[in-house]
Design goal:
It contains five helices and seven strands, in the order ββααβββαααββ. It has helices at 23-49, 58-91, 115-139, 144-159, 161-173; strands at residues 4-5, 12-19, 95-99, 104-108, 112-114, 179-183, 187-193.
């Protein structure tokens, strides 16, 4: 099966859709994301920072929020560019980027990708950015700046719930099926081969 199809082959029919702009989907993914963010940040804080004697005074608190705001903005861009890089490497097609109230996204302007391309492109930000952030969190001493990184990591972890959901659909729902995915960023449509 090719990596990319500009047109949907005749023997494929739509089977399932994930639309991040739908109220129900965005509320569910946001609640899961917030829960994961809180759990991961609490875990890191209590294992890495609690009882270290770092002075979190008012100045540090302001620096924390300023660093967190800038870091979050930069990370969201980096996350979406990572999706885009892998989509582009596999397809050489134009990409679309966007931002809604609840989700930033990257996808293909047109066309359909196979299961492998969709899996790699969906999981790349989670795997790549989890590795380097976790290494820094583990190796660096506790400090207000590491607390900022820990918060960004928790946001990253929670924010990847949509990517992990797409991965779960591909691995479990379509485990032994030929599937093509149309991903315009906020909406993934899954097409299965009709035999």
């Amino acid at each position: 099966m090719k990596n990319y199809y500009k047109e949907l082959p005749e023997n494929f029919k739509e089977d399932f859709v994930i639309d991040a702009k739908s109220k129900k989907t965005s509320i569910i993914l946001t609640l899961i994301s917030m829960g994961l963010l809180a759990a991961v940040f609490a875990l890191i804080f209590f294992t890495k920072f609690y009882g270290t004697g770092i002075n979190y005074n008012e100045d540090n608190f302001s620096v924390f929020w300023l660093g967190a705001f800038v870091g979050i903005f930069a990370y969201v861009i980096l996350h979406e560019l990572t999706h885009g890089l892998f989509y582009y490497l596999f397809t050489k097609q134009k990409l679309t980027f966007g931002l809604t109230l609840f989700v930033a996204y990257c996808g293909l302007k047109e066309g359909y990708v196979n299961k492998t391309v969709s899996l790699v492109s969906s999981l790349a930000p989670f795997v790549i950015h989890s590795i380097w952030m976790l290494l820094l969190i583990i190796l660096l001493p506790a400090s207000p700046w590491l607390l900022v990184l820990s918060f960004i990591f928790a946001l990253h972890f929670g924010g990847c719930c949509g990517d992990i959901y797409v991965t779960g659909i591909l691995l479990f729902r379509y485990n032994k099926k030929q599937v093509l995915v149309r991903d315009n960023g906020y909406k993934q449509s899954f097409y299965i081969e009709q035999k």
